[in-house]
Structures are given as structure tokens and as C-alpha cells.
Amino acid sequence: MGAAGKRYQDLSRFSVPPGFRGRNALWVQLWWVVQDTLFAWSPQICYRFRVALLRLFGAKIGKNVLIRASARVTYPWKLEIGDHVWVGDDTVLYNLAEIHIGDHVALAHRVYLCTGLHDIGRASFDIGAKPIRLEEQVWLPNDVFVAPGVTIGAGSVIGARSSVFHDMPAGMICHGSPCRPVKPRPCQDGQ
Predict the structure, then answer these.
(1) Is 60 exceeded by the pLDDT of residue 191?
(2) Which residues, other chains included, contact 186 with Cβ-Cβ below 8 Å and sequence gap of 6+?
(3) 75 near 23, Cβ under 8 Å?
(4) Is residue 119 over pLDDT 90?
(5) What Cα–Cα distance (Å) separates residue 86 from each residue in 9, 82, 91, 121, 144?
(6) Cβ distance 124 to 14 under 8 Å?
(7) Which residue has the higher pLDDT, 190 or 82?
(8) Which listed residue (100, 104, 109, 118) is catalytic?
(9) How confident is the model over 54-100, as pLDDT tens digits?
């Protein structure tokens, strides 16, 4: 029991809802084995190989996408990536719900996109998920955390080590924890 005999969470009552993962348990385990071996052990220059593995497991990925071998994807079948996207070292795409990444998006190192959440008002600690959307030309530098249900507008930059708990508008430089829009991002029209 917690403070003053209150029960805040009872993990013995937790269970994953049927169909939550989007594929059967065997397929999920197979992906995790492939990710921890073939994907993770591939030489850094083998971007096409890693993209092919993700596509094999159901990811929708555009052209000229560079994903580092140390990046982690929980469920490829819940991932959509546009063209000319970079995914840096140790980035985690914790996609219990769908993650959509638009064209020309750059994710630096140790970015964490988290779609998963728990109901803290229930002792059974029920699991849930909300999708994340990064519109085109977004840049997330090192150590940025993006929370469930967030959309980051086209062309925005989120400052390093920021925590994004709410939608961010298009074309802005944003930073902080919690993240806030600060000023418009300079634009290179036609160049």
C-alpha cells in the first residue's frame, strides 16, 4: 500500500488489451529479435538495408531515408516516414500508436518520440497510446522528448533537450521544458 494505506497502482492487475500491438505476439517477438541483431549489427553505411528490414515488417518509408543502426523502433507497422529523412543514433520511436514523420525531417541523436501512456487514475495502470505527427521540415536536435498526441508544425525547430508536451506551431523555433514557441524560424525561400 502507498501513503496512508492508499492504493495508487497495482501492477498485478495490469494487462495489455487484445490487439493493442497491432500484430500477433510471434510477429512482435520476431521483429524485436531482428532489430537486436541484423538491424543493430549492420554497418553504419547500410541505410538501405535497415530501411528494407523496416519495410519488411510493415513500415511505410519514402526515398533517401537514413536511419542509424542504434535507432529503435517498437512497432514498424505503426511507422510512416516521408522522403529525405534522417534518424540519428540512439533515437527511440516508441510507437505504440502511429508515428508519422514528414519529408525532410531531421531527428538528431537520442531523440525520444513516445506515443505510450498509462492511466494514473486507475490502480490497474491501464496502457494507452496517442499518435505523434512531425510535419515536413521539422528539426529535433539532441535529447528532445516528444509526448503522446503531439503534432509539431512544418518547419519548426525544437531546441536541444526540450520536452514537448503540447502541439507546436509551424515555422517556429521552440525550446524549453515544457517547450514553448519563441520566435519565427528564418526561411530560405527558393534556395
Answers:
(1) no
(2) none
(3) yes
(4) yes
(5) 39, 10, 10, 38, 15
(6) yes
(7) 82
(8) 118
(9) 999 999 999 999 999 999 999 999 999 999 999 999 999 999 999 99
How far apart (Å, rounded) are the C-alpha atoms in residues 191 and 8?
A: 55
Contact 42, 50 (CB under 8 A): yes
Whether 100 is catalytic is no
Percent of the chain with pLDDT over 70: 97
Non-local CB neighbours of 143 within 8 Å, separated by 6+ positions: 109, 110, 111, 160, 161
d(CA 152, CA 180): 11
Secondary structure (H, E, C), 29-98: HHHHHHHHHHHHHCCCCCHHHHHHHHHHCCCEECCCCEECCCCEECCHHHEEECCCCEECCCCEEECCCC
DSSP lists the bridge partners of residue 39 as none
